[in-house]
Design a protein that fits this description.
Two copies of one chain form a homodimer. Chain A is an alpha/beta fold and about 300 residues long. Chain A has eleven helices and 14 strands. The first copy, chain A, is globular and about 65 Å long.
Chain lengths: ~300, ~300
């Protein structure tokens, strides 16, 4: 097993200025796996759903190369449900409804054959459960990436801070970096957070791109300027899935390769926001991905010959 | 004359979370010229000050290679004064006081020897005065860059729209691009604005970098992640000065060279915000500038070899 992804598999109901959906398939682990499957097929998922979750979606993920043995199906219960409404700027949203359902007493169990995964992606989930998964691994993964959100900083900060000691890469947004560090400047925030444990920090700034920090270096990847952001739901998870999927497929965790991985993650996220939910990711071709990568190259590459070089 | 810059020369009083200044030298044309002087010395300025403006600053600009023959000095009047206070996020500010003084009845007069300047930088100023300057040019400059702000969109939109028919490059911030176009998406905003006249549009996004559009291409330059932004006053003018100064020194107005010019402009702006007012620009060395450019290269350059290339 090359890559193991843990996180929610869910139903979402979304309202944006462009329209409204009924219950559609969502969840951090869903977006992560769909995105990573563009790069690697040696992948497993650990999550939980209820009996109401469509069997076709589970089949579809299997077809994408995702080993679904770690998906617990609680036939008599209901799948986690989230409903939200985006504001006109598409950067902020209100949660309308959250029904934990099967998530309320979820205990992740990593199947035997996934416990030696080289790459571990801990999608947004209760911090204690993320740590649970780390502890089930028989060999320490080559790279552990953890995604989280402000909600856990509000109610489970101590657990989250404990997790930071066990991981390699933390991905959070700019507001969360400020909350976690108590620093407004993102450079200062990064310095503080890197002292809490992770070797790398990715700060996601939505339409303003993403920053990758280690203690010595910083890299910036822009977001592609899009005519319209149709639905931002899952963009962060899709970014993370593209990032770790690319790393897992190349097995190279150097800073240089992480730069490429962030560009691939950004490209995947730029597709995600073009349609509601997972729709755009489902039939994405590798040619489309390569063409989008070329757009990123064209967007930021310049040629300056410095006298001092 | 290679480059002519028009705009305010002023006194500013600034308050930021880091401190407070008395009246210090500011003004769009001041920042533009100080920044452009890093790249070209064949430069003139057209503006107006009162008798209270320090003769040493005028001398200093001359020493930087700026021809000051176009600076009107109204001995019995007072220099334009602006006072403002920045909020904690440093992205927004309140104007505390504006005293137009000599600016109230300013009529720009371009000295004979500057009327054939190849590059014309119209700094932020009443749109009618910007057009006045264009009309005084005996030869159509190779490149006319115009900077403006939301204030003129509120009170003189028709004049501003007329100006757009006579210029090559418009530089505005993201909020102003939305106001001018009525479009929230910056890509759509750019498409609309480019139909109003300019061949190029630069959208300045402050700490989130800058976008350069023409009808077919888009380029993104990041802002350097800084530990602290000490005082943002003049950063946009410094950016514009670096942009046109670099273009004037290389005499190359291709899209590829404009990309480099934007990186140089961004580098200059990153120095500007490190101290109050013009302080950081006054003793900047070319080695410091080259080192900062290398930081931009390191920040955004990545190496992806695409199969399709």
């Amino acid at each position: 097993m090359s890559l193991l992804a843990v996180g929610t598999v869910a139903f979402d109901a979304i309202e944006t200025p462009f329209g409204k959906t009924d219950k559609i398939v969502g969840g951090a682990a869903t977006f992560i796996c769909l995105s990573a499957s563009q790069f690697t097929h040696k992948m497993g998922l650990v999550s939980v759903v209820g009996g109401d979750f469509p069997k076709e979606t589970i089949e579809l993920l299997k077809q994408k190369g995702v080993n679904m043995d770690g998906l617990q199906i609680k036939e008599n219960e209901k799948t986690f449900f989230w409903s939200g409404k985006y504001h006109n700027d598409m950067n902020s949203r209100d949660t309308i409804d959250t029904q934990l359902n099967v998530l309320a007493d979820f205990v992740p169990v990593v199947p035997e054959e996934m416990r030696n995964a080289e790459f571990l992606m801990l999608g947004n989930l209760m911090p204690k459960l993320q740590l649970d998964v780390i502890k089930q691994m028989t060999t320490r993964p080559k790279l552990i990436v953890l995604d989280t959100m402000n909600f856990w900083m509000d109610i489970a900060m101590d657990d989250l801070i404990e997790n930071l000691k066990h991981i390699d890469v933390l991905t959070i947004n700019d507001g969360e970096a400020r909350q976690l560090s108590g620093e407004y400047s993102l450079v200062k925030a990064a310095q503080k957070i890197l002292k809490m444990g992770p070797k790398y920090l990715i700060i996601k700034k939505g339409e303003h791109g993403a920053l990758l920090f280690n203690k010595e270096q910083v890299f910036f990847a822009p977001a592609l300027p899009l005519e319209d952001v149709f639905d931002p739901t899952g963009a962060g998870d899709t970014f993370a899935g593209g990032f770790i999927g690319y790393l897992a497929s190349t097995k190279d965790i150097s800073f240089e390769n992480m730069k490429r991985a962030i560009i691939y993650g950004s490209a995947m996220a730029s597709f995600c926001v073009e349609k509601f939910g997972t729709e755009r990711l489902l039939n994405l071709t590798s040619t489309e991905v390569e063409e989008r990568i070329q757009e990123f190259v064209d967007l930021v590459q310049f040629d300056i010959s410095l006298v001092n070089e």
